[in-house]
């Protein structure tokens, strides 16, 4: 499957395409080896890239910036069925949601430490409670010794402590 769609009329060399996006030429060669790019070859065997390749490189960069891996991008680029693409993208969206949730918990912990009045934050009851919750969250519910407190309960305690 060749992706250079302009019959060579305005084909670019690998160096020109790489420079257009601020990439090293070895990146384009790697993407080709992974099946992401399919440049045509001229009579001398040199890669020639057309308008479709330019679009494909832009799409790869946008997908990478969105956090998708090259294998996932290849699947998206080679899949013709809409339902399959949606399935891939739904899984990626869920993974991103999970990372966002984890980042929020991390930010909350850091902000709690920044606002803690204890000299040693490890002595703060709110900090200890959050750490205990994290430990409990790694143990199956049936094996936990008592009712687990949620992050929402921690937030509520922090708000009450700040209001007092």
Give a concise summary.
The protein has 7 helices and 2 strands; from the N terminus they run ααββααααα.
Task: Describe the structure in your own words.
With 164 residues, the protein is mainly alpha-helical. The chain is built from seven helices and two strands, in the order H-H-E-E-H-H-H-H-H. It has helices spanning 14-21, 25-33, 51-65, 70-78, 82-115, 125-137, 151-163, and strands at 40-41, 47-48. Strands 1-2 form a two-stranded antiparallel sheet. Helix 6 packs antiparallel against helix 7 (151-163). It is elongated. The chain starts with 13 loop residues before the first helix and ends with a helix. 14% of the residues are buried. The model is unreliable at 1-9 (pLDDT under 50).
In N-to-C order, the SSE pattern is: HHEEHHHHH
Silhouette: elongated
Q: Spatial order of the strands in the main sheet? A: 1-2
Largest sheet: 2 strands, antiparallel
Mean pLDDT: 84
User: Segments where pLDDT lies below 50 for 5+ residues?
Assistant: 1-9
Cα distance spanning the termini: 68 Å
Strand content: under 5%
Q: Class by helix and strand content?
A: mainly alpha
- Say how many strands there are: 2
- What proportion of the residues is helical, as a percent range? 55-70%
Count of DSSP H/I helices: 7
Q: Measured on Cα atoms, how large is the radius of gyration? A: 25 Å
